[in-house]
């Protein structure tokens, strides 16, 4: 009942059911034009091809005297995907979050997303869920959706892990339920950092910076170059392109609040600064990007060369677009198949093998003051 109340209070809609029915899914997909559905399928194919390379395998080590050690890799049983709603629909988020989970072999992938004021889910979201293989869809958003996934309700099943971006309330909810369930990360505002020499078209670099600035007013767009003249050209191009943007107000606020152009003494220093910032997206628009890539230590995704805009990674290339933000690329990674599996260790010792090492185990345990451990190692040999 609480979820229905919150839907009426925050989403301004009175729902009679939370789960999206098969009939609703089919009707929604029928509204998606065939050309875009084909694009979804192409994008999904690229994402699958990339993420299949991430699959891990367990291993077994067989030693003397029938000692066996190993590790199993198994999928997380139940995964919840949070897909933002509100002013825009993000089918790319559905593909990026669901496909790695399905490749990992997760038996149940559940999606939650806020309903529109008419009580429906955007057709493109339903189409993406179909393409990605989502098992169940529920019309619930906000912090209450995270809570429902973490604890379970009469309508929404409890999951073991929650992934996906959201607003500040969703991020805070994910923080609070961590420990009850696992989460992917706490996603902050979007970021792009471009390292560029003066051989680039200033308008192309400006367009790439603004591609992230249009996300929200807290987004960060940064250029590092070794040319003062080129920096000024890009600055002018940014202002020119802003005037033609549909989301000009948001992008302009982002540029004014968080935008930066840094002039380094050379491109080597530019990479040093980029590594300190540890951006979500890093573009290397230089003559030999593969050589420079070797110097990159901290970044979510790296885009190489003058013809590889970050938007390729957002939608189509195949790499994941759920990335570490706010400098967390120093110690964390993009969403991947690894996020949807568990690793379980195992060991087997024969009686003979245990007898041979029991005294060593017991001595180690006693050194730590744990005599009960010591006894459990030696009692079988008596």
Describe this structure in words.
- With 382 residues, the protein is of the alpha/beta class.
- The chain has two domains: 2-185, Nitrogenase molybdenum iron protein domain (Rossmann fold); 191-330, Nitrogenase molybdenum iron protein domain (Rossmann fold), CATH 3.40.50.1980.
- Helices cover 43% and strands 18% of the residues.
- It has 15 helices and 13 strands.
- It has helices spanning 2-10, 22-30, 34-52, 91-104, 123-132, 142-151, 168-177, 202-213, 228-242, 248-258, 267-277, 289-293, 311-315, 351-367, 371-378, and strands at residues 59-63, 67-75, 78-82, 108-113, 136-139, 161-163, 182-183, 191-196, 220-225, 260-263, 281-285, 301-304, 341-348.
- A five-stranded parallel sheet has the order 5-4-3-6-7, with helices on both faces. Strands 10-9-8-11-12 form a five-stranded parallel sheet, sandwiched between helices. The chain has a three-stranded antiparallel sheet with strand order 1-2-13, with no helix packed on it.
- The chain is globular.
- It starts with a helix and ends with a helix.
């Amino acid at each position: 009942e609480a979820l229905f109340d919150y839907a009426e209070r925050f989403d301004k809609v009175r729902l009679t059911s939370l789960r999206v029915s098969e009939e609703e899914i089919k009707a929604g997909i029928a509204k998606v034009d065939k050309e875009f559905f084909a694009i979804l399928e192409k994008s999904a194919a690229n994402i699958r091809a990339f993420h299949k390379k991430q699959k891990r395998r367990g291993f077994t080590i067989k030693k003397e005297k029938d000692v066996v050690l190993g590790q199993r890799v198994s999928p997380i049983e139940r995964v919840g995907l949070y897909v933002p709603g509100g002013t825009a629909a993000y089918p790319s988020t559905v593909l990026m979050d669901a496909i790695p989970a399905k490749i990992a072999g997760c038996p149940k992938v559940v999606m939650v997303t806020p309903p529109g004021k008419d009580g429906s889910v955007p057709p493109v979201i339903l189409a993406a869920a179909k393409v990605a293989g989502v098992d169940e869809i529920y019309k619930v958003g906000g912090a209450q959706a995270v809570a429902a996934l973490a604890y379970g309700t009469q309508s929404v099943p409890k999951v073991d892990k929650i992934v996906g971006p959201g607003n500040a309330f969703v991020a805070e909810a994910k923080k609070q339920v961590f420990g009850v369930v696992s989460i992917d990360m706490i996603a902050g505002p979007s970021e792009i950092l471009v390292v560029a020499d003066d051989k680039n078209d200033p308008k192309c670099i400006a367009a790439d910076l603004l591609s992230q600035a249009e996300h929200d007013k807290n987004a960060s767009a940064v250029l590092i170059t070794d040319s003062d003249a080129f920096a000024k050209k890009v600055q002018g191009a940014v202002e020119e392109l802003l005037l033609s943007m549909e989301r000009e107000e948001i992008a302009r606020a982002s540029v004014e609040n968080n935008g930066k152009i840094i002039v380094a003494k050379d491109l080597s220093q530019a990479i040093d600064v980029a590594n300190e910032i540890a951006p979500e997206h890093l573009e290397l628009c230089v003559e030999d990007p593969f050589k420079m890539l070797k110097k990159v230590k901290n970044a979510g995704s790296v885009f190489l060369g003058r013809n590889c805009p970050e938007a390729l990674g957002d939608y189509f290339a195949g790499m994941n677009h759920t990335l570490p933000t706010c400098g967390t690329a120093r110690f964390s990674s993009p969403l991947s198949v690894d996020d949807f599996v568990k690793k379980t260790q195992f060991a087997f010792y024969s009686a003979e093998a245990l007898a041979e090492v029991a005294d060593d185990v017991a001595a180690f345990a006693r050194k730590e003051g744990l005599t009960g451990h010591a006894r459990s190692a030696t009692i079988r040999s008596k």
